[in-house]
């Protein structure tokens, strides 16, 4: 009886320890950033800057050196596979709603470092912190 009790306790302890080891921890966090923080990240890291608005919106006004991947496009899921999952990604849209949804998709796809411009380009288009290109 004593051996059965010890075996049971040992079994429970081993099960508990191995279940903790096997559980996958997701360290990916989407970080909201200000225009100033975004500019610092762009200067310090090799970053993929992605505008998730429509091509029409992108043509009218955009942050310099950004690429356009339309969140509403039927090929969006395929388009994001062209990005490097190991390089940081900064997302932005008009107000922050689409980029937040996109950030979740990138996180689910296994991207390691995701930043989202707080408030989108609308909040920061008059800021001197970002280099904005406007169609003339």
Structure description:
By secondary structure, the protein is of the alpha/beta class. The protein has one domain (27-134): Rhodanese-like domain (Oxidized Rhodanese, domain 1, 3-Layer(aba) Sandwich), CATH 3.40.250.10. It has helices at 2-22, 35-44, 55-60, 76-79, 97-108, 120-124, and strands at residues 30-33, 48-51, 61-63, 67-68, 89-92, 114-117, 132-134. Strands 1-6-5-2-4 form a 5-stranded parallel β-sheet. A two-stranded antiparallel sheet has the order 3-7. The model is unreliable at 6-10 and 16-25 (pLDDT under 50).
Per DSSP, the total helix count is 6
Strand order of the largest sheet: 1-6-5-2-4
**Secondary structural class:** alpha/beta
Average predicted confidence as pLDDT: 85
Name the CATH architecture: 3-Layer(aba) Sandwich
C-alpha geometry: globular
Strand content: 15-25%
Instruction: Please give the share of residues in helix.
Output: 40-55%
How would you characterize the largest beta sheet?
Answer: 5 strands, parallel
CATH homologous superfamily? Rhodanese-like domain
